[in-house]
Amino acid sequence: MLAAALRGAPNGRRPRIVLRSAWQTINIGDVGHTPGVLRLITATVLALAQDPAAARAKAGKARAYVRQCQRETMAILKRNLVGRAISP
């Protein structure tokens, strides 16, 4: 999806990546990010552009990992919450 976004937006605007800090609740337009984060983004975007097939494979592996974590978390919740009254 990111690789497709980097090719260009359908409305003719230049592609962009929006980086949001965890503490940020609104976009104030002048938030600076550490050079380390910017280097990581640059390296990631370049890797996507240079080897899209490897990027897709890596994203698929990450997606499978997240889904497995979600399944495990839901199983824990089900074991511990089903049948218990939850106070509002």
Description:
With 88 residues, the chain is mostly helical. The chain folds into 2 domains: 41 residues, no CATH class; 31 residues. It contains 3 helices and no strands. Helix 2 crosses helix 3. The mean pLDDT is 75.
- Report helical residue fraction: 55-70%
Q: CA-to-CA gap between the ends? A: 39 Å
The profile of the biggest β sheet is: none
How much is the radius of gyration in Å?
19 Å
Number of helices: 3
Query: What is the strand content?
Result: under 5%
Summarize the topology.
Elements: H1 2-7, H2 35-50, H3 52-81
Helix pairs in contact: 2-3
Task: Supply database-style keywords.
88 residues; mainly alpha; 2 domains; 0% strand; extended
How is this structure best summarized?
The protein folds into two domains: 1-22 and 32-50, no CATH class; 52-82. Helices cover 59% and strands 0% of the residues. The protein is built from three helices and no strands.
